Amino acid sequence: MSVTLPKGFVAAGVAAGLKSSGKPDVAVVVNQGPGMSAAAVFTSNRVQAAPVKWSRQVTADGQVQAVVLNSGGANACTGSPGFEDAAATAAHAAELLRLPADNVAVCSTGLIGIRLPMPELLTGVEAAVGELSAEGGASAARAIMTTDSVPKEAGATRDGWSVGGMAKGAGMLAPGLATMLVVLTTDADVEPAALDRALRAATRVTFDRADSDGCMSTNDTVVVLASGASGIRPSDDELAAALTEVSADLARQLIHDAEGAHHDIAIEVVGAATEADAETVGREIARSNLFKCAVFGNDPNWGRVLSAIGVTDAEFDPDLLDVSFNGVMVCRGGQIGEDRSLVDLGPRDVHVLVDLHAGDATATILTNDLTYDYVRENAEYSS
Where is this site: Cleavage (predicted)? Predict the structure, then answer.
């Protein structure tokens, strides 16, 4: 299960020397067609990295044939020289692949405020192009890692067509249309406009609801490429469902691998007046350091959940709130519910259910009990 699961895609990952550790740091994913539809969503952070600015331009027409990604340097806050570096990276890959430069997207991750070592990067791109294969998805996923402890890949097969994907991210995980770096692929035959609709529908309920630390990156990018190699044209709903399945899998992997986390937490908000209210409540709880500390300490402290809900502008009656931890309703009607000692917070997965009793809308936010008492050798702050 990787970006090369769908027909028509090749990929590779190599070590180019961008990382002092010597680990893989350059990846290339190529759509061999016959189609070249593409769509992307990017960070809404007003401080945006050069590769985000470049890739916004090249994806605007809905056609991309290759994505070049590097770890070991974000190429963010590097001014016009950094943009020129992103353009040069695309141009070099395009020359090697015999493609137009404006059909090559670029993604970078690593430290902010440092120029990329271009000779090493361009040599790495050349090496990666030389190793492209239909079995190269795993090496590409490994090459985009920063503080990730494991590569992240996913896939979904349908009747004659499929979706694949890879992602990186272990810190600076907070939503803004998308988070982290993600490349999705499909061999479905789909027009750019339909692909864009499906991607936005998928990211809205997956990556956009994964919130580890409340810190939005300057480099967040999710791009999807469609080769059309299956010859099958799914409906809009079928395509969105497949993209959502893969995106949800990758989002869960990102939350699971977040730096210092011991629990994966799904905060499900039901009974909201609107979906926006449900999302607001879930996100407020997810960003509460007191709530995270409680879960880390295996304490189902529902008071911290109620206090987080109380600062939102969502519609609710405080005397009707219900809160459950892993199936035990510890707060019922805004008051003491079941004995909190009945709650088992030992498992890695924690489910918090909040019922606002104000309507029928729902939303689920993925988070974790991220803590800061960890030390990692050769750690590189991600972006």
Answer: 178-179
Backbone angles phi, psi at 121, to 5 degrees: -65, -45
92-133 pLDDT tens trace? 999 999 999 999 999 999 888 999 999 999 999 999 999 999
User: 70 among the known binding-site residues?
Assistant: no
Whether pTM exceeds 0.70: yes
Domains of the chain from N-terminus onward: 9-256 (3.60.70.12), 264-380 (3.10.20.340)
CA distance 284 to 158: 36
Cα–Cα distances (Å) from 77 to 46, 82, 115, 180, 323, in that order, read 11, 8, 9, 17, 43
The per-residue pLDDT for 149 is 87
Q: Would you say 168 is a known binding-site residue? A: yes
Cα separation, 20 vs 261, whole angstroms = 26
Tell which residue, 363, 334, 367, 368, has the closest CA to residue 269.
363
What sign has the CA pseudo-torsion 4, 106, 38, 197?
Answer: positive
Concerning whether 157 is annotated as a catalytic residue, the answer is no
pLDDT tens for each residue of 196-235: 999 999 999 999 888 776 666 777 889 999 999 999 999 9
State yes or no: 179 annotated in a binding site: yes
292 is in an annotated binding site: no
